[in-house]
Amino acid sequence: MARIPILKMGAFLLVTIQVDMHDRLALTLQDDLTTRIVADRAHGVLIDISSLDVVDSFIGRMISDISKMAQVLDAHTVVVGMQPAVAITLVELGLSLEGVRTALDVERGMELLRLQVSEG
Amino acid sequence: MNELRPLTVSLKTSEDVVRLRQTVRERAVEIGFGLVDQTKLVTAASELARNTILYGGGGEATLEIVTQGERRGICLTFSDRGPGIPDVELALKDGYTSGSGLGLGLGGAKRLSNEFNIVSQVGAGTRVTIKRWR
Asked: pLDDT digit string (tens) for A49-98?
């Protein structure tokens, strides 16, 4: 089964979601991320959703779960690259993604993570 | 282009959800929906399709191009022969879930659509219809 690649970028991990996710893939991603955060002692996770033209509550739930799980492991999560139409739709859908910060792109996302990490 | 003919697809696996999203997107583009409207419709379809599979035990979705005078739109119907919803009003409340979801699917699909209708009978099944107009 295909897996979503997780890239190490210094103290952070980058996950780029490019395909329509089905349940098993989403669960595998969460498992893989947990393992990698611990193994790499990552301080943060960047979830790149710039390729997603639809984010429904299933994906929203996955992002939220990743964020909570990362938090337990003392890592921050930033979602980057949300498409405008997706942002508008998420608001109307009522998906709040509480506790999940967002940034326009990977660069700004990493800046945000560095800031959060230095604030302790 | 047989765009006026209703299209029915089976909803049993999460791959079916992916396929349905693509089909809805294609049709929405065909009849000229703007990007935001497309996204809202596809997202609503995704929510309802997942519900059909997760709670309804699988079912089917029908896509129809509809017209009302000058305007055109897309009508999507999601039906299953699952357990049915005992309390529809409760099910529509944000945050309510009988499973492990976020509880946003039904109410969310309603908010994302111009028209929304739900018929459900315990022991018989559920049918949700949404429409988005151009």
From this structure: 999 999 999 899 899 999 999 999 999 999 999 999 999 999 999 888 88
- Count CB neighbours of A70 within 10 A: 23
Say yes or no: A119 contacts chain B, CB-CB below 8 A: no
> What count of other Cβ atoms lies within 10 Å of the Cβ of residue B30?
12
Q: Which helix (H) or strand (E) holds B80?
A: strand B71-80
CB contact under 8 A, A57 and B112: no
- Can you tell me the distance from the alpha carbon of A41 to that of A44, in angstroms, rounded to the nearest whole number? 9
Closest alpha carbon within chain B to A58? B101
CATH of B7-133, one of 2.40.30.10, 3.30.565.10, 2.60.40.10, 1.10.3720.10: 3.30.565.10
pLDDT tens digits for B23-62?
999 999 999 999 999 999 999 999 999 999 999 999 999 9
